[in-house]
Every structure is written in structure tokens, then in C-alpha cells.
Protein: Prolipoprotein diacylglyceryl transferase
Organism: Tumebacillus algifaecis
Amino acid sequence: MSILPSGLHLGPIAFDDSGWVGLLLAFIVFLFVTKRMFIRRGGDGEKLTDVLLVMAAVWVLTPRLLSFVYAPVESFSHPILTLVGGQVPFGQWWGTAIALGYGFWQQRKHQFELRVAGDVVARAFVLGFAVYSLCYAVAGAPTNLPWAVTHGEQSYHPLNLYQAAVALGIFALRRSGAWSLLLFGAGMLLLSLLQVHPYTLFGLAMLQWLWLLLALVGLFVLIGLADQKVEKAA
């Protein structure tokens, strides 16, 4: 739910949804923290954040630009609306694939140390998510707890505040990126139990699968790092 008053528009574009504001602020914080931490670890923070910025732009713009190919008449009739919210089937997947391909190419070009870059990006992502959560209200299951938020005639868990608190706590622990992903994914998965999920796949909602995937990525990275330490010790 948006925390901005409804009715804010600039021409055909609505500005009464705080979700895009939260995403923008979160991404700015993400880039700033990534740059600072990567420089502190001896890397080129400027180049890394430039790559991440281009990857984000590719991911966002690809499905919108593909709309001009998929439905040219409608898209060229309303170009601004298409660039703001245009989508095509599997467009986001194409954007993800192209963005990742660009990222891998730039990594080979600039020779970023993957372990350090991944560690920094993971921790900055957790902090960025906390910023987003503070900007966009997410109602959980109905509750009568004193800190519940009221929407209409019903009171709900302020799920976004729980998520922000967990993410900020994980970032404050100053653990590695792998630990941060593991704790973040597990924490978000547990908090998702306070939500109502009308659509599930094999018992979990798509967002829950994402949280589980992040936790597993963190776990597998930790296992891989532990194996490397054992091999070096041997």
C-alpha cells in the first residue's frame, strides 16, 4: 500500500504510489553503500557501481523497449505510458538474462574479485531492502495487537516494518554477505507466514520461493567457503 496521498499525477503518469519512491531511494542507498564498502575492501567502487547501474537500467528498460516490437501500434501511440509500465510476455526474464550477461562480461573486463564484490553487494542489498520497506506499507494477517495498522475496518500486522527491522538488524550485525543472505532469506520467509497468500506453487507463494532461494544461496556460499578453508588447511 502506498504511503503517499492519492491523486498525485503528472500528465498520464501517477505519482501516488510510494513503491517507486521506495525503489529509487533503496537503489540510491544500495549504490552508495556498495561503492563505499568496495572501496574500503580495496576495489574500484566507481566501476562496480557503474556496472550495477547499467544492469539495473537494462533490467528495467528491456521489457518496456520490447513492447515497441511486440505491440508497435499501441506502444508508439502512448510512448510515455509504455516506457513507464510497458510489459511483454517473459520480458522481465529477457531483461534479467541480458543484465546478467552484461554483468559477467564487465566482471571479466574489470576483473572484480567476485568474493569481495558479492559480499559487498549482498550486504548493501539487505540495507536497500530495509529502506524500501520503510517507504511502502505491506499489510500482514489480521491482528488485534496494539501496534497493528488499520486499513478500512480491519487491523493488520505492519509487515513492512517487521521486514525493515529484520533487514536493519542483519545489516547491523556486520556479518559476511553469505551470512546476510542466509539470515535475510530465512527471516523474510518466516515473516511471510504472517501474510495471506491466495496463490501458491507447491505449497509456497512465489515470493516465499524467492526468500527460500536467497537463503539457500547464502547457505551454499558458506558451505563452499568452508570447503575452501578445509582444503587450504590440508
Summary: Confidence is low (pLDDT under 50) at residues 4-13. The first strand starts at residue 9 and ends at 10. The beta strands are 9-10, 13-14, 139-142, 149-151, 154-158.
